[in-house]
Amino acid sequence: MAKNWNITIKFLFFLGGSNEDETSMDKLFQEGSQHRDLVIDDFHETYLNLTLKSCRMLKWVNLRYPSVPLLAKLDDDVYINWDLIFGFLRNKDAPNLIAGSPFSSAYPVADPTSKFYTPPIVWETGTGYPTYACGVFYILGKRVRQELYKGALSTRLFHMEDMFLTGIVRERFLPDVGIQEIKEYISTLHLEGNPWSILYSGWGPCQFYEGVAVAHSLSVKRLQCFFRIGYFCKNGFVHAVKILCPKE
C-alpha cells in the first residue's frame, strides 16, 4: 500500500464444488493447499445459487473469523483501489456499516430471457425493490454480517443475493442501518475506447488511479492493466503507464 494504514487483509475465494468433476476438484484442492486461499463448500456453483453462496459465506466468516471488523464481498472481475477504500472507511461506524453502490428505485426485470428476470409469482411486477447494495462489491461490518445471516435463516430466499441480503433482510432486521455510498464506483459499461485511460473527460491514467475506488466487469487483461497503473502511479513512473496496457 502507498500509505501505512496498519490494516491486514486476508483474501479468500469462496466457491461451490458439488458440480465439479473429480479432475477439477483435484486441481482446486492442489491450488488450495498451495495458496491457502480457497474455501470450497457443498453447493452447485450456478447463478441462481448466489444467494445460497453468500449466506454460506457469511456463516463461514462468522464462525471462523467472528472478531474480524469488516468483510468485503466482491466478484472476481472487480478492480479495487484499497487506498481509496481505506480512506473511505476512516471514522466510519464499522460494526454497523454497509457500504457500496446503493440501488434505489429498482424494479423487477420482466424479460424472461434476462438473467435478472423475476417472475411475478416471486415479486409482484411494478412493485419496487427496497434499496440494496450492488453485489459486485460491498462491505459489511461485524454486527451487520452477523444479523444479516441470522435474519436470512427466517426469510424466504430471493434469487438476487445482493437484493436479498442488503435489501430484504436488511430492511426487515436492520431498519436503522442504511447503505453508505462509495462514490468512486464505476462500471465498465461506461468505459469504452482506450483500455488504459477509460476516461471520462480526458482523464489520464494516474487521475483514474487517484479517482476510482471500484471498477467491475473487467477482463483479466484489463484487471492486470489497472493494477500496473496503480503500481507505476504510486511509485512515480507516470510516463511509463501508457505503454503498459495494450488494446485487447
From TrEMBL:
Primary site of residence: Golgi
Keyword match Secreted: no
Any one cellular-component term (Gene Ontology): Golgi membrane
Entry keywords, A to Z: Glycosyltransferase, Golgi apparatus, Membrane, Signal-anchor, Transferase, Transmembrane, Transmembrane helix
Taxonomy, superkingdom: Eukaryota
InterPro entries cross-referenced by the UniProt entry: Glyco_trans_31 (IPR002659)
Uppermost EC category: transferase
Subcellular location field: Golgi apparatus membrane
GO biological process terms, semicolon-separated: protein O-linked glycosylation
Molecular-function GO terms, alphabetical: hexosyltransferase activity
Presence of the UniProt keyword Phosphoprotein in the record: no
Membrane topology: Single-pass type II membrane protein
Coiled-coil segments: none
Enzyme Commission (EC) number: 2.4.1.-
UniProt record similarity statement: Belongs to the glycosyltransferase 31 family.
PANTHER family with a match to the protein in the record: BETA-1,3-N-ACETYLGLUCOSAMINYLTRANSFERASE, HEXOSYLTRANSFERASE
Protein name: Hexosyltransferase
Organism: Folsomia candida (Springtail)
